[in-house]
Amino acid sequence: MTLLFFGNLEIVYAETEIAPESETETFASRYSDLPGHLNIDIIVADFQNDYSSTTKLKKDYIFGCKRLSNALAVGRGPWGFGVFSTISCRIDFDPNKASKDQLGWLLRVSRKDNIVQVSLMDAQNKVVKILSVENRRGFLKFLLDREYTDLIGLYFLDSLPFAGILDTEKLDLHDGFQNRGMALSPKGLSKFGKISPPDFLNVYSVKFDSDIAKPRLRAKLKFDAEDLPKVPKRSKKKTELSRNLFSKIKWKMMKEMLADSSQETTWIHNAEGSGFFSAQTVRLIEEATSSLNEAEENNYLSDYIAGDTIESILGRYQGGYIGLRYGFQLIPGDPLMKNASFFGLVGELRSGLLGGLRFYFDKMPEKKFTDDDLRYSMAWERFIIGKSFGYQLKYAPKIGLWNLKLRSPVVIYDSDLTESKVNGDFRMSNALSGALELGLEWYSQGYALRTWGGIDRGIAISRLGSKNVTSVRIGLDGIVKAGPKARIWGENFRTAFLFFLMGERLALEDKTVQNINDGDAEISGLNLEGGYAGAGMAVSW
């Protein structure tokens, strides 16, 4: 006995058909007309101000509606899903005024107060699912991007009890079922982030008898992870519509139960149940919309959709930045770090293949002073590279190299326990480090803010032992996009301001042999604390 997920209902079925609970009658009446007809209704009046002419609006409306049709039609949606056999596009379509043969399901696109709402309604005009995104202008142009409409299609299809119809004639009981994947950019990359196909698909048929749904499992398919996607050759056509490509994916048969010649419609859905991809899809749609919003506002939307720009590889609206920053001591710490300061090169990529990549190069120039004939000095530099994972709550593993050199007085005792101070040294070169950072992010089109904490440990090993440095840091980083803009090589660049606060505790340990020569000693261990504030300038894209 198995559970089959229909919307929010769990219907139990086995080889003998078991009638679902009585509450399923509502389900049966809502979905028994699938596969069926879908009307796509774009409220043109809501988007009229985006265009200088009705001709341009009509062109984008027609092509955008075609994209939505491809994302929801049988066999043409993401991963070959789709539940609507016929689709028509209507302007300001009013189902209350339509003739009976025009009625069907409805996908309505409207905008109010900078919020675009895409609503899916059944044949009884009851809302099934709503998607809301922020947009000020240009939304119909966004629909030219097939990656974007594939995400929208997946959002709705994943929430239905039927994600798609399986063409059993294309199913080889030994070789499996092959279909197209999600849309890709022309270079085989995903601008908006990738969603992996379901590991397992349920293949089933459903009979509707007096408003009772009677499902029957017919097969189970397993995603063939070894069958790597093959990216087609890039099209030579120059239109935006022809240059979004697809990969091929395959599921293999696990259970051979389709030998009968049943004429029943054969449905497929993720075996995890409906709504499994909802949270991930919503996040990617929001990020993709923000990216497209910025491209439209800065007049490079066509290039972005066509996939010819750096932005199409870097991805979402924030893209990335690279800049210089300077930090000075804010919180008094160890005397050795009095008036310490450093400068650094920082950068981050927000998405694409290298999405989440961060790098830092910080350097503290050597600072020296003398007190009672004892010499103080300190200099360090570190290079760290890492990659963040997650959405708002993020974790970032990192690796790096440390170089550190300091001199500070240390206390020694002679044979009669007399205390004295001598100059002590600690030197460490090319220490390999590993780190883990946890952070919480907030960002919009114009700024990003991250509060974080992390621990970093570097080790330099020699034949005499090891020298270790452990850094525990907490901080707040921010970037604000402001100032002049420039369009270079087809890309839109903008200046940005960086700011940060950071507290750090360094623990140094030297396990090599200690020596005292001519009044100098090697430092075996030392703890340093300090707090910094700083700012900088960056170029963002």
Please give the structural blueprint.
Elements (H helix, E strand, L loop, with lengths): L1 E5 L2 E5 L10 H8 L4 E7 L11 H19 L11 E8 L13 E8 L2 E7 L5 E8 L4 H4 L3 H14 L4 E2 L11 E8 L15 E10 L2 E12 L21 E9 L13 E4 L7 H20 L3 H6 L3 H5 L5 E12 L9 E9 L7 E15 L2 E14 L1 E2 L2 E21 L5 E25 L3 E16 L2 E24 L2 E20 L5 E2 L2 E3 L2 E16 L1
Parallel strand pairs: 3-4, 3-5, 20-25
Antiparallel strand pairs: 1-2, 5-6, 6-7, 8-13, 9-12, 10-11, 10-13, 11-12, 14-15, 14-26, 15-16, 16-17, 17-19, 18-19, 19-20, 20-21, 21-22, 22-23, 23-26, 24-25
Helix pairs in contact: 2-4, 4-5
Describe the overall structure.
The strands form four sheets. The protein has a ten-stranded antiparallel beta barrel. With 541 residues, it is mainly β. It is built from seven helices and 26 strands. The protein has helices at residues 24-31, 54-72, 139-142, 146-159, 278-297, 301-306, 310-314; strands at residues 2-6, 9-13, 36-42, 84-91, 105-112, 115-121, 127-134, 164-165, 177-184, 200-209, 212-223, 245-253, 267-270, 320-331, 341-349, 357-371, 374-387, 389-390, 393-413, 419-443, 447-462, 465-488, 491-510, 516-517, 520-522, 525-540. It starts with a strand and ends with a strand.
Q: In short, what is this structure?
A:
The chain is mainly beta and 541 residues long. The protein is 14% helix and 50% strand. The protein has a ten-stranded antiparallel barrel. Strands 8-13-10-11-12-9 form a six-stranded antiparallel β-sheet.
